[in-house]
Amino acid sequence: MKKYTLKVQEVRKETKDTVTVCFKQPGLKKIKYLAGQYLTLQFRINGRRYIRPYSFSSAPVIDSTLDITVKRVTGGIISNHINDNIKVDDVIEVYEPIGDFVFENSQDVRGVTFWGVGSGITPLFSMIKDILVNQPSVDVHLVYGNKSNSSIIFKKQFEQLKVDYVSRFKVWNFFSQEEFFEEDSHNKKGRIHKKFVEDLMKSTHSTDRHYICGPIELKKTVKKTLIELGYSENSIFSEDFELIKNPEDFKDILDQEVLLSFEGLERNIKVNKGKSVLEEALGLGIELPYSCQTGNCSTCKGILKSGQLKMIGLDRPRTDLTENEYLLCCSYPLTGNVCIEV
Ligand SMILES: Cc1cc2nc3c(=O)[nH]c(=O)nc-3n(C[C@H](O)[C@H](O)[C@H](O)COP(=O)(O)OP(=O)(O)OC[C@H]3O[C@@H](n4cnc5c(N)ncnc54)[C@H](O)[C@@H]3O)c2cc1C
Ligand code: FES
After folding, report:
1. What is the CATH topology of the domain spanning 111-239?
2. Which residues form the FAD-binding FR-type domain (predicted)?
3. In which band, very low, low, confident or very high, does the pLDDT at 205 lie, cut at 50, 70 and 90?
């Protein structure tokens, strides 16, 4: 993957636990990306390399800087590092933008509904701006869940977009922990739920595409309800910020030794039950390539030379992988003779 060094032009506090970092575009060759894609950042802290993907909150052409918006994760190394330490003029290494959580327009799309919770709003914000500005015939609905009014990321920006695109942009806010507010038709208590999805879809007939980003419960509720309502799987797109593991899938996994061949060196590593080959290798300082850690980008691909591996947590069948290719961020050894080449 192509690497760039970007300079921080601005750091904006969005809420008490979220910042937007705006990078200056390189002077000569501007970085191209699509609304909804993500940038992969690389840090070195106490000698260890950390790589994390962050969706663009900026939209191409509309925003002059490349913006990412990062919410603190409790105990998280990089999200807290970015919130606490990143400042104007810092220089950060990034990999070229990737991701297929993007809006592809076709003539027949009249409306798009975005479903987001918390920091999941980031790629949605990028796509919403892009569609409102560049697709004048497409209506946009946003259903956005937060703990409280003060935890809404991009609150002011959404208020402005509602004014600028009054006939095309509508927002419904859900608050799971806000105590002092009057419920009305656009501000609701609790979490986004099945009945609301059904009622909204019955009252608005123009949604042809759905984009979901947030915790697994949001995706499950919204996707399942939409499918029950007759929406095809092909019209529903989602992005996961975290790999979801089902403990049931680990029943046949044991601690195993794995022989890893990378950059001409062979290393025997112990892969403990529950840890992926990638996680264990990174923990030992073996700097394998990776980005999303959710089984989507394929950056962590390895070739299985012997033994058996099992991939766990993949969101969709991967027809692009050949028989011996495995995504090491979600690969777990099933046998004791596993040998992998990267
Ligand atoms: C495609 C993609 C786009 C992303 N875009 C954004 C974005 O726009 N804004 C943003 O804030 N984050 C985004 N993320 C998540 C981000 O990459 C990091 O995973 C997150 O910031 C946590 O990193 P960390 O180093 O702080 O935590 P780590 O030190 O890696 O993890 C600490 C603990 O937190 C848990 N954890 C990890 N990630 C999450 C999470 N997302 N939510 C809750 N718990 C978690 C881990 O299981 C672990 O137990 C995105 C992830 C993906 C895959
Ligand atoms: S790191 Fe993206 S698929 Fe494994």
Report:
1. Rossmann fold (3.40.50)
2. 1-104
3. low
Query: Measured over all CA atoms, what is the biggest interatomic distance in the chain, rounded to whole angstroms?
Result: 64
Q: What is the pLDDT confidence band of residue 180, given thresholds at 50, 70 and 90?
A: confident
**Residues of each domain in the chain carrying CATH 3.10.20.30:** 247-341
What superfamily does domain 3-98 belong to in CATH? Translation factors (2.40.30.10)
Overall average pLDDT of the 135-155 stretch: 96
Every domain of the chain with CATH number 3.40.50.80 lies at 111-239
At a CB cut-off of 8 Å and minimum separation 6, what does 240 contact?
A: 216, 219, 294, 296, 315
- pLDDT at residue number 318: 83
Q: Which two tokens stand for residue 13?
A: 């506090």
Ligand 2 atom with least separation from CA of 295: 3
Average pLDDT taken over every residue of the chain: 94
Q: Tell whether ligand 2 has an atom less than 6 A from the beta carbon of residue 297.
A: yes
CA–CA distance, 178 with 188 (Å, rounded to integer): 10
Instruction: For residue 302, report the distance from its CA to the centre of ligand 2, in Å.
Output: 11
73 CA → ligand 1 middle, Å: 7
Exposure pattern of 188-215 as b/e (b: 16+ CB <10 Å)?
beebbeeebbeebbeeeeebebbbbbbb
Mutate to test the pocket of ligand 1, among 17, 73, 290 (most ligand atoms within 8 A of CB): 73
What superfamily would CATH give domain 247-341? Beta-grasp domain (3.10.20.30)
The ligand 1 atom nearest the CA atom of 56:
8
CB distance 300 to ligand 2 below 6 Å: yes
Alpha carbon nearest to ligand 1 atom 11, residue: 70
